[in-house]
Design brief:
By secondary structure, the chain is α+β, with helices and mostly antiparallel strands. The protein has helices at about 35, 70-75, 95-110, 125-135, and strands at about 1-5, 10-15, 40-50, 50-60, 80-90, 115-120, 135-140, 145-150. Helix 3 links the parallel strand 5 (about 80-90) and strand 6 (about 115-120).
Amino acid sequence: MSYDAPMSGPRLQRIDAHDFPSIHDDPVRPELDMDFRLAEGREVYGLYDGTILLAVLCAAYVTQIPHTVAELRAWSLPLGTSVVFYTVWSYCRGAGHTIIQFARTHILQEHPNLEHLVTLSPKTTMAHDFHLKNGATLLSENAESDTYEYPRS
């Protein structure tokens, strides 16, 4: 299933296990397999230019904002009140920013009543700088992660 991007060029596409067997490229959470990523209430998106994969984003719909992967696992539901971007990586410069923007737009069109768009981010300078540069604010610093919130618009 493809989603048209707001401009020409890259497009956002939902990924399933058949489309993306090499999930091991994930530098953030390589321990999470596709069964976890595609369980009820979770989705994986790819940003493509033609057939070339530019970036990947994993999202989960949750009932509470998690601070750990265990909480993410427990609180994921198809009708969650918030969405968590729990991993994002790119294969080329700028694609991480673009997939965040495209996914945010698509998810809010599909689920306009979501209360929060947040991250479950590693406690690294790279993650901190990436999210602040892309318009998020630091919501909380947790023992295992940091949570950033993206604006709805």
